[in-house]
Every structure is written in C-alpha cells, then in structure tokens.
Amino acid sequence: MFSPRSIALGALSLMFMGSTCSAMQVPESLLLDSVAQSLALPIYTWSANGTHNAKGYTTEKADVADVQGLFEDCENINLNRKLATNFRSDVFGPGVIGFFYKCEKISHDTNMYWFTISSGNRSQIDQLCDPNQKYPIVYDKQHDTWFVDEPFDCTQRTSPSILP
Ligand SMILES: *[C@@H]1O[C@H](CO)[C@@H](O)[C@H](O)[C@H]1NC(C)=O
Ligand SMILES: *[C@@H]1O[C@H](CO)[C@@H](O)[C@H](O)[C@H]1NC(C)=O
Fold first, then answer.
1. Other Cβ atoms closer than 10 A to 91
2. Atom of ligand 1 nearest to the CA of 156
3. What is the pLDDT of residues 50-90, one digit of tens each?
4. How far does the centroid of ligand 1 lie from the alpha carbon of residue 45, in Å?
C-alpha cells in the first residue's frame, strides 16, 4: 500500500523546490540534478498553489479526532516541509508531486496546509483544483493517523510557458 502522506525529505525538499528556476540555469548543480532525476520531474509542468484542510482521526471510521497525530503532522511540516511524490496516486494516478511547506491547526480535528503541486499532466491539476473532488480516507503510518483530505483551494495556477 502506498503511503501518500508520509514522505518527508526535510530541508532537501525545501532547497529543491525553492531552486527550480536556478536549477535550469545552473546545470552543474549535482544536488538538484540528482533530485530532479530521481523524482523523474517532467520538463513541462502544470502547477498550482493554495491551501487545503485535512481532518485527522484515530481510526478508519473517522469518528474520533487524532489530536496528537494532527499536532505532530503540522509540527513536522513546519519544521521539515514535506515533498510527496506520486501524491494521492489512488485518486490522480502517478506523477503528481506535492510540496507542503506550512501548517496551522484550525480546529480540534482539522489542520490547514499550504501547498504547491505540480504535474506533467494538466488534467491531474484540473482534477486537484476541482472544488468537488473527493478523497478517500488514507492511513499515515508515520503519525498513526487516518486523514481525510478536503478539496484543494487553488489560488494560483501556472502552465508551461513553452508547450511541448
Ligand atoms: C501562490 O503563489 C503566488 C505567486 O508566487 C503567491 O503570491 C501566493 O502567495 C501563493 N499562494 C499561496 C497560498 O501559497
Ligand atoms: C492524465 O491524468 C488523467 C487523470 O486526471 C488520466 O486519466 C490520464 O490517463 C492521464 N494522462 C496521461 C498521458 O498519463
């Protein structure tokens, strides 16, 4: 079973996502080349940013808030950021890369996350930004918490400037 919420690459992901443009101009960056190659980053990407909420529960029945798991996930994202390759592949199929870089608790059972997301397949980003998109509950092994993702609120979207 894939684990869409559990991939944490720490500071590396922050450096990488913050430096995508300079990676194009600085081909001698071994670090960024290596990260881009191992993630199989598409050359032409569609992307979106914004915020979304997720609720955390102690069991798959989603009846009791997992206050500790929500706290730990938020804390981890604020400290380390999170880069998720093949984010929610159960919903989108492969190839969506999600970067989560800020989190705030907004109620006892809900966190708000700031995201930037990218894919080589435009319809995956259309689907992600659809306010009616539903996400099945998923288990996060790292925090032993069941998460329900709510729709992603895309505040800004970009298309490749050079189309393939
Ligand atoms: C989305 O990106 C734009 C442009 O960089 C930025 O101004 C905005 O604050 C971002 N929004 C969020 C929610 O991250
Ligand atoms: C693009 O994503 C959609 C799902 O949003 C999928 O149905 C389609 O097969 C994907 N296309 C390619 C070329 O992977």
1. 17
2. 1
3. 999 999 999 999 999 999 999 999 999 999 999 999 999 99
4. 17
